[in-house]
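Exercise 3.2. Students should predict the tertiary structure of the chain below and write it as structure tokens, then compare their answer with the key that follows.

Predict this chain's 3D structure.
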Amino acid sequence: MADITQDLLQLQYSQNFPISGMQEADINLTLPPVAPATATVYGTVTDGTDPIPDATVKLFDSKGKPYQHTLTDKNGEYTLDGIPAGTYTLAAVKEGYLLSDAAGVVLTTSDTTQINLVCTQDSSLSLGALAGVVKTLVDKTETPLSGTKLSLLNAANEVVATTYSVDDGEFAFYDLADGSYTLMASAMGYLPAAPMAVTIVNGSIANVLVTMSADSRTYNGTVSGIIRDQNGNAVAGCFVGLFQVTAGQELLIATTKTNTDGKYLFGGVTSGEYLVKAKMNQ
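Answer key:
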């Protein structure tokens, strides 16, 4: 058998250049070394018995970072090549199947290694899902709203699931059987959102936007405190005024008097800047 010739230095090329008459051309090239030989991983993805076509097979490096991926062919077979020597893990997945157990492999130069993977079908993965975002208007700008309670009701008007929106306003329901649902949303200080109809068909995924409006009657704050004299004693019956500050101007908007413990409270305080003033007459 004839010896197989292998490259030692990589092919390089010059730029185009003209030659005119007896002109001398001086063209120098630097040839870098050929990259080290690489390894190949191949195999078949099955459900334990039958091959799974169009499954995604992904290779991760020793730090768990994705390195390369491919799809299986109609026979469930795959090949990953051009892999440098090192330690890797391999896994496969397809819609309707759980991610396979990771298979570890240590590859050396020019290795060709077979790794077969098994993906288990999971009927729950064929069920539907509902995802969305809850938002509200703050100074005429849409802003995510966290802490919103979301309830999902079935066609019989029974609550089948509840969840709460997170910091970025997102929420999700999963493992939903086909059917018609009603989504309800409520949050403290906001008017309940109008019921939203959602339909799941053939395991579909629904995406919705829920908009909450502030309840002017309850979406407000309070201002409270204690009035004391120079000796630290609570002052009962003391006049207390709440001033709203706008562009440096003070406007008295509410008054009250302290109770026997020197305490006062203003409710229904809307967004803004305020200050409190107090005095006691003889």
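Discussion points: Residues 127-214 form a domain with the Immunoglobulin-like fold (CATH 2.60.40.10). The first strand starts at residue 39 and ends at 46.
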